[in-house]
Amino acid sequence: MGIPSKDRIGKKFGKLTIINVIKNKGKKTYVLCKCDCGNTKQIRLDGITSGLVVSCGCFNKEQAIKTGKKKRTHGKTHTRIYRIWRKMKERCYYEADRRKYKYYGGRGITVYEEWKNSFEKFYDWAITHGYADNLSIDRIDVNGNYEPSNCRWITMAEQQRNKRNNIKIQGA
Predict the structure, then answer these.
(1) H-helix or E-strand containing 103?
(2) What are the pLDDT digits (tens) for 40-57?
(3) Which of 41, 42, 103, 140 is most buried (CB neighbours < 10 A)?
(4) Where are the domains of the chain?
């Protein structure tokens, strides 16, 4: 067995110095660390001792600046529209989702290449084509792909009327 957690206080790992043991969650120990940059952060002890975690996150930022490869993010990962984009792709490409894949990717439904590879492209299309938080994405032709000419934003009531198993009744 390794060194007890309390005995690691004051020890330095990479840019991190352990200043306190915070808590144990099951078999995992969390410690409060002070980074060389001045930040404090709660981190799993095994991440630090294994060398997987070497800083509060500043090391990766420094490396990106040095190499000129800044990490580019859109800042919308936790939004509803991002979840819609991610789920659309999962339905078409994630075979392990047995409930949904068979009705989408399993039938050959795909996602427009630009959307598949870029949330930003999907987002730009969605915003300019009526996206609102109370609407969901709909394929006009239920046998067609997710692509600009076959998609629209509609209410859930409208969505329910556009299903493959619906029987359309003509007015008398």
Answers:
(1) none
(2) 999 888 888 877 888 888
(3) 41
(4) 5-67, 80-161
